[in-house]
Amino acid sequence: MSEHQTFFSNLKCRECGSLYPKEAIHICEFDFGPLEAAYDYDLISKHINRKVIESRPQTMWRYRELLPIDGNPTVGEQVGFTPLVRADRLAAHLGVDELYIKNDTVNYPTLSFKDRVVSVALSRAKELGFKIVACASTGNLANSVAANAAAAGLTSYVLIPANLEKSKIVGSLVYGTQVIGIEGAYDQVNRLCSEIAGKYGWGFVNVNLRPYYAEGSKSMGFEIAEQLGWKLPKHTVIPMASGSLLTKIHKAYKEFMRVGILDEQSFSVHGAQASGCSPISEAHKKHSDIVKPVSSPNTIVKSLAIGTPADGYYAIRSMTETGGSAEDCSDEEVIRGIRDLAEYAGIFSETAGGVTVACARKLIETGKIPRNESIVLCITGHGLKTQEAIQGHCGEPRIINPSLREFEALIANDAAVLESGHKS
Amino acid sequence: MPVQVRIPAPLRKLTNDQEIVSTTGANVGDVLNALNAAHPGLIERICDEQGNIRRFVNIFVNDEDIRFQQEKATPVKDGDEVSIVPAIAGG
User: Fold this and answer.
1) Contact between B29 and B73 (Cβ < 8 Å)
2) Which chain B positions have a beta carbon within 8 Å of A188's beta carbon?
3) Among A165, A290, A387, A406, which residue's CB has the most CB atoms within a 10 Å radius?
């Protein structure tokens, strides 16, 4: 597919607009601004439309003209197109009319939205000739790099804070990756990786491959629009760590309008953080675009605990531009959010999903999201990855001997049984 | 008595590919000025027109982010290590 090369034209500095070749570089030499993939949208609009997309396999790669690789994807060809679930019971519980869950807890292969970004980053890493790939991670990215690198036959190193949830550590180790635990917070891991990436010739998915990596998140936005019947939700609530996912969903919505797949329409993107690490939400609430870093994040939501969010400034701009709001919530509210999503929608999310639900509730209660407008909640990772956070908060099994008498005594006063009238 | 400054890859064209540069100064601002005297053009990459450290640049003195200290007035002493690190995305 050589024509694909011309769709993705350059890397471009988001600050000054300087153009760069499509290499493993991520910041502008002049002002340190992040580099971003630039496309030839006029050409793309001639090549894709709804019908063309609908005729392709149900993966994130059905939008490949808008993803930054030259050839066909070689890593993670099956990633994406996760369900968009209409959640009427949760809607009733939250007091809104039209609510959907974009359910990336079942993304392939590692049960989080990070498979999207890794699929792009490692496909590009192979095009650029890297043999060793690596990442700094709060857990989900590490799992995905480890799994996808293993499948692709690439050597991988993942660097994580040493105190991560056990499931997230095992969920990397199992793939035979080199897991390096750093005694420090994520931001310190990040900084170390930035220095390592400068020294070794490795493909760091969220350092020197970041312009490619970050674009993978757009596929979540493309899918939401398609699955909603080729229209945008009025409101999209998105968890924020570095703020990258929010900016990329915003970009995806705009790109679909730019290439004529969607008519011009208004929408808002809202950002959700945990109060124990909410630099972006704090800044937005103060109507400031200066993101004051958090030196010691303190929350059970480890996957969002980034004190120095690289895309915070742009996330604020996206929210402001679209009339969206930012919110943050306590750890107790996170747990309630996880339980609500499980009990009313049948979806078990990791802590970040609890943040999204809890912040959506606040945005609804404060009127920032009107109750009669359509809402999509982005749920980005599976609950089995952060079981520690919820353990002890959702009861314990009731234990009996294998005896019908004991069973009947046990359930005799259960409300559901009393109501159904199935008593002997 | 020198302060060691770690130069990130995108700025090494200005330091003849040196990864670590020795310089002097009483605080971070001084160090940046001294660095610029030895390697002209370096400071405009790190600071904007108003002289503030750019949004996407992080500076650490011995592993401590200067935004949690006194920004450019953060003191440095002999033997300290100053690192200039670009912001990177999350995961």
Assistant:
1) yes
2) 63
3) A165
Predicted confidence (pLDDT) per residue in B23-66, tens digit: 999 999 999 999 999 999 999 999 998 988 988 888 999 988 89
Cβ of B85 within 8 Å of Cβ of A191? The answer is: yes
State the residue for tokens 């370096």: B42
Of A191, A206, A293, the CB nearest to B89: A206
The residue type of A138 is: T
Alpha carbons A136 and A119: distance in angstroms, whole number: 16
**Residue showing tokens 């405009």:** B44
* Domain at A4-78+114-214, CATH from 3.40.50.2300, 3.40.1190.20, 3.40.50.1100, 2.40.110.10: 3.40.50.1100
Strands B3-6 and B81-86: parallel
Place of tokens 């999204």: A356
Rg of the Cα trace of chain B?
12
Residue of B nearest to A291 (CA): B55
Assigned superfamily of B3-86: Beta-grasp domain (3.10.20.30)
A36: which strand partners?
Answer: A12
The pTM of the full predicted model, rounded to 2 decimals, is: 0.93
Q: Which residue from B8, B56, B90 is facing A198, i.e. has the nearest CB?
A: B8
